[in-house]
Specification:
The complex is a heterodimer of chains A (516) and B (384). Chain A has helices at residues 2-11, 46-59, 78-81, 86-89, 235-242, 244-259, 276-281, 335-349, 456-470; strands spanning 40-45, 66-70, 98-112, 115-117, 119-120, 123-124, 128-129, 136-150, 190-211, 216-222, 229-231, 261-263, 287-295, 301-309, 329-334, 354-363, 372-382, 388-392, 401-416, 433-441, 485-489, 494-499. With 516 residues, chain A is α+β, with helices and mostly antiparallel strands. In chain A, the strands form four sheets. An eight-stranded mixed sheet of chain A has the order 7-4-13-14-1-15-22-21. In chain B, the strands form two sheets. Chain B has a four-stranded antiparallel sheet with strand order 1-2-3-4. A two-stranded antiparallel ribbon of chain B has the order 5-6. In chain B, a hairpin with an 8-residue loop joins β3 (171-176) and β4 (185-189). The chains are: A alpha+beta (516), B alpha+beta (384).
């Protein structure tokens, strides 16, 4: 069913699919969304992967891996010694110093995938097999050969003595100096003088990691078998690395990276952060995930994770098109995934949620008593069970509605008549009653008038539900809220979301190749 | 099923003075009825056009994008027609709700069913049609909009309505048998003015006027119909509201399907199913019947309890209109059952939730993204 629907969409270029923004046609160039028979498709830009890799390296404490040895214990080639500035050389005999090999400024240099889908203006071409047995990514670094000197830290009550006027060199240390041990170089603990640099390319195997217990998945990098390629036009580098000490230091710098699990893509969690218990209680069907590499219209790599639930197998990878549309993250998800995700989130966020409100009511006449318009104090207690998630077509052009159906218990606590006198005999109205609870969500209807702010508890529930739809990731990333766009299609029962990272703090890769 | 003629039983066992629609604004009643009929005709014409377009697309094994856009434009027009039809029917019902009419009609139809037994809705339509087509009645109904082309279309739709109006345990009941279900499904029809049974009953009773406002003013509100078990029964206003929301949703589904996947070549693949035809008939017939009934009332209106004859129309016309209004209510009840969850004994409530606020929440959400991480098992409340 899903396949035939997909083909039908592709055949209708003028009317096709969901739209990036209401009112625009979803041509492939504008980023038309198709699940191609999968239950969810996640697309990640190179920029986002760069941010995730940097974040993951930092979490693993390998964002600047290095190794060092006392400088006078290493036989440095003359070309390296010549690179030491005279003012530093003058104080080497009085200040501890180390020779350090350090890797800095990681960047995603190249992507190698067994099958690369090349998108032409007329649609997907045949897969281009590039001959790699398993997906891999080349991570580029700048290799530095540094002279590192411990940065001085003062004990309380002491001040640093300064050199006499006209002298050169670092401040003279006070009597009590704390020096970080060389085995654990810390970025902030040393003053570094870079003697030589080189470029290092480290291939890593990319593998999909599916965490069934917590209902999340992502692509990680394995550097365990990495063999770096070092290129430099500086003879100091080649001279140094040919020495035994230089090679050992280089191996030492790489060692922590080889045992680290580095994320390439964010960890995708459609239900948000779920404990194994919550995932089990929600009866989450396990994922199977397929990764493919696409290129966008500008030739930039796009990693695409195509998700099936359970034993489903209706997806056709060659039909998946890039729909990032120059954003950093795109998420197309069918209600088959969205529904259990929202139900699991609802079970957590709505547990024990109740709200008390005062509302006007019309009491009809009965038993000879005249009716009146009064005021009621009602308590609504939310069920922690979300019964249904569906997408309903909207009559206007503001995007379809994601309708959540649950139930609530309504209880009349107090009733006042039109004069403000409290009605004490509430009769059958006093009995708590079950009532359906419909929560319609139109994420992208910017024209809708903002209603009154919901009570804090309800707002918290809504925020968590929105997070499940817009940000199904476990990595905290800085995103630009003004870039969030998307569309919900009742006809396809699919939600599509896109957003970009904030421009600040994210360093776009300035070099590297994409193998297509 | 009873073989007793309903009209005969009605005259024999429940002879009554003409029902009174008082107070009503006859001018707006006429205007709304005329609007409802005009839009119903437009919608039925669209259904015929849609069937023809499907046939052409299937025969040609594909059509141009221009063809698809033309169908889409017609569908959007039909969406506007339906909005107007529902608004008119709801306003007519809103006026009738403020009269004692429903109590009269339920009492007298109940008395007739006691004698005549359960009545198939198709049979009721056939009997009413005989009166409508009589020489001295036809012009009255034609003036109210019930022209021969519309009666033909209604006859076609009613042929697909396999529902029965009966009286069970003192309550009027609409019953249908859904294919695949052993037990028939039924809902009770209730006259307005009954005591409130509980707090949700109280809240539900207030929704009708909001729905009228939404349809009349095209307000951006979300309306929904949700199947829930255990609801005692429905007033005519409930059913008109349910029908309006269901029809609007079906047509919105249809338009979205045209936009996203194009014209289906088989009717079964489209949300614009036979159900919407039934809903249109129920809404339009009720509006026509109401305006004819208004003409049956003398002017000035009679005093309460005063027995008067019809000033303008033959009695048969007024009785036929009376039955038509009951029929329209029953048809809407049957449609509600058909749209229920698998035809089970489901009932409906009207749901209305104001839209808006989500864009603000989105920004709020983003501001808290750093805290939505693997390291926090539950999300924090929004800022404030």
């Amino acid at each position: 069913m899903a396949l035939s629907m997909t083909e039908s969409i592709l055949g209708l270029s003028g009317l096709t699919g969901m739209r990036a923004n209401p009112g625009t046609l979803g041509t492939p160039q504008a980023g038309a969304v198709s699940l191609a028979g999968f239950d969810a498709v996640i697309q990640v830009s190179r920029r986002l992967m760069q941010a995730v890799v940097e974040q993951s390296l930092s979490v693993n404490n390998v964002d600047a891996p290095g190794a060092m040895a006392p400088w006078n214990s290493v036989a440095l080639p003359a070309s390296v010694l010549a690179a030491i500035p005279p003012r530093v050389r003058n104080v080497l005999s009085i200040v501890p110093a180390y020779v350090e090999v350090r890797l800095v400024e990681p960047y995603l240099a190249a992507f190698h995938w067994p099958q690369t889908i090349v998108i032409s203006p007329t649609g997907p071409a045949a897969p281009h097999v590039v001959g790699h047995q398993s997906p891999s990514v080349d991570l580029g670094w700048q290799l530095q050969i540094n002279l590192a000197q411990p940065r001085l830290t003062l004990t309380p009550g002491e001040t640093a003595r300064t050199l006499p006027a006209g002298s050169f060199g670092p401040p003279i240390p006070p009597r009590a100096v704390n020096v970080a041990p060389p085995a654990a170089p810390n970025t902030d603990s040393y003053d570094r003088t870079t003697l030589a640099t080189a470029s290092v390319t480290m291939p890593a195997t990319a593998y999909i990691d599916v965490n069934t217990k917590q209902w999340c998945f992502g692509v990680n990098l394995d550097f365990s078998a990495t063999s770096p390629t070092i290129t430099s036009g500086d003879t100091a580098v080649t001279d140094f690395l040919t020495t035994g000490d230089g090679k050992n230091l280089c191996d030492g710098a790489l060692a922590p990276l080889k045992v680290a699990v580095v994320q390439l893509t964010p960890e995708v969690a459609p239900g948000g952060s779920l404990s194994a218990t919550a995932a089990q209680a929600g009866g989450m069907t396990p994922f199977s995930v397929q990764d493919i590499l696409l290129s966008d219209a500008n030739g930039n790599p796009v990693i695409c994770l195509c998700v099936h639930l359970g034993s489903a197998s209706g997806g056709v990878a060659r039909l998946v098109q890039p729909f990032l549309n120059f954003d950093d993250f795109a998420y197309a998800v069918s209600t088959s995934v969205l529904s259990p995700a929202l139900k699991a989130r609802w079970a957590i966020a709505a547990a024990g949620l109740a709200n008390v409100a005062i509302v006007p009511v019309d009491i009809p006449p009965s038993d000879g008593n005249a009716g009146f318009t009064g005021t009621a104090r009602l308590r609504t207690t939310f069920s922690n069970k979300l019964d249904d998630v569906s997408m309903r077509a909207a009559a206007d052009n503001g995007g379809d509605t994601i309708r959540l159906l649950s139930s609530m218990t309504v209880q009349l606590l107090q009733l006042w008549d039109s004069t403000g006198k409290q009605v004490t005999d509430l009769g059958p109205l006093a009995q708590p009653a079950e009532s359906p609870l419909v929560v319609p969500i139109r994420l992208f209807d910017k024209d809708a008038a903002d209603g009154a702010a919901p009570p804090a508890g309800v707002a918290n529930l809504l925020v968590q539900l929105l997070a499940t739809m817009v940000y199904p990731l476990l990595n905290p990333l800085p995103i630009d809220p003004t870039t969030i766009s998307g569309y919900a299609s009742a006809a396809l029962q699919t939600l599509a979301v896109r957003w970009s990272l904030t421009k600040a703090n994210i360093v776009a890769p300035t070099s590297g190749v994409f193998e297509a | 099923m009873s073989k007793t003629n309903f009209m005969t039983a009605f005259h024999a066992h429940a002879r009554m003075p003409h029902p009174h629609l008082h107070p009503v604004n006859r001018a707006t009643l006429h205007a709304d009825s005329a609007l409802a009929v005009a839009k119903a005709k437009g919608l039925m014409a669209y259904q015929q056009y849609l069937a023809a377009a499907r046939e052409v697309k299937a025969r040609r094994a594909g059509v141009s994008a221009s063809f698809e856009r033309t169908v889409l434009a017609q569908a959007v027009q039909a969406q506007g027609d339906l909005q107007a039809l529902c608004g008119a029917a709801l306003r007519v019902t809103q006026q009738i709700n403020q009269t004692d009419f429903w109590g009269q009609i339920f009492t007298h139809v109940g008395a007739t069913l006691d004698k005549a037994g359960p009545q198939h809705l198709g049979q009721l339509w056939s009997e009413a049609l005989q009166t409508i087509q009589k020489h001295d009645s036809a012009q009255v109904f034609a003036n109210a909009g019930l022209t021969s082309d519309l009666t033909d279309a209604i006859t076609g739709v009613m042929a697909n309505v396999d529902a029965t109006l009966a009286k069970k345990n003192g309550t009027l009941t609409v019953q249908i048998t859904v294919p695949g279900n052993k037990e028939p499904s039924a809902i009770s029809l209730l006259a307005p003015g009954r005591p409130v049974m509980g707090v949700t009953d109280l809240l539900r009773a207030q929704q009708f006027d909001s729905i009228v406002s939404v349809f009349t003013n095209n307000e951006p509100a979300y309306l929904d119909v949700v199947a829930v078990p255990g609801v005692a029964g429905y007033e005519p206003a409930d059913l008109t509201g349910v029908a309006s929301i269901l029809a609007r949703q079906r047509l919105a589904d249809h338009v979205r399907k045209l936009q996203d996947t194009g014209l289906a070549t088989y009717q079964g693949q489209d949300p614009l199913s036979a159900l919407i035809g039934i809903l249109i008939v129920g809404l339009a017939v009720g509006a026509v019947a109401a305006v004819v009934l208004a003409g049956c009332d003398p002017q000035p209106p009679p005093e309460p309890g005063e027995v008067v004859g019809s000033p303008d129309y033959p009695e048969a016309v007024c009785v036929a209109a009376f039955i038509l209004l009951m029929l329209a209510t029953a048809v809407l009840g049957a449609a509600a059952l058909l749209a229920g969850s698998g035809g089970s004994a489901a009932a409906f409530i009207l749901g209305e939730v104001a839209l808006g606020g989500y864009s603000a929440l989105l920004v709020d959400l983003v501001n808290h993204f750093p805290r939505f991480s693997a390291f926090s098992p539950t999300a924090p409340p929004p800022s404030g």
